[in-house]
Amino acid sequence: MRIGVVFPQNEIGADAGAVRAYVQAAEELGFRHVMAFDHVVGADPAVHQGWEGPYDVRSTFHEPLVLFGYLAALTRLELVTGIVILPQRQTVLAAKQAAEVDLLTGGRFRFGVGLGWNQVEYEALGQDFATRGRRIEEQVGLMRRLWSEESVTFEGAFDRVTGAGLAPLPVRRPIPVWFGAQSPPAYRRAGRLADGWFPQMSPGPKLDEAKAIVEEAASQAGRDPSAIGMEGRVRWTGDAGELGALAGRWREAGATHLAVNTMKAGLSSVDEHIAALSTASVTLGLRES
Prior knowledge:
The chain is an alpha/beta fold. Helix content is 40%, strand content 18%. The relative contact order is 0.15.
């Protein structure tokens, strides 16, 4: 099980030096990858009365693909989007950006994608929230062709490409695409299309049910369910024993990857996030104390 970290989007701030210090410390502590969440804009609760989303206009988010262009020169960690909200983005441009990150990292990029939940954000980016499920399936197929073929001609329900292609092509052709999933339709979509998936729950009966749906959908699509990766997530609470126990449950559940999330743990500086990761790395056996 490969263990990485969740980039603390909401708490890292705007200082590029803090971003650099965090990621380089994570690599030194033995972690294997860094995952970044995605939101382009936040809703203003003063305008959207009764707003209940977990993020708003004050929540800090670095744009993950631009961020990864910066990190590619600073670290050997694998860079992972977890997740880019793909249907609210232009397909070909997203494919180009992903190809560039893959190229700059020498193939150390995993493109996590999903549907999102924020209608305000879809509106701001000029896309249709209602068709996002159908659109992402078309997008992934088109992107894989763009990453693998010199010239592509494609006409779908949402995108049209006539004799055009990306140059340079990425190192990995195609780039691995992982799906965020938290509903039966999304589990089935992951089984049909994804190289891996990100469950949105802890190990237990609900994960077992979700995993069974993913695997059944993969089999029905003629794919090998065992070839589909699964990345769990463990939240840092300050209790190293609790962290280690939950990581063990993810390993038993068949996770191929795991990410340690230090956000919303009461940490107020990049140094405190790094200190938490230092303890976690010892607990998870990434280095000796």
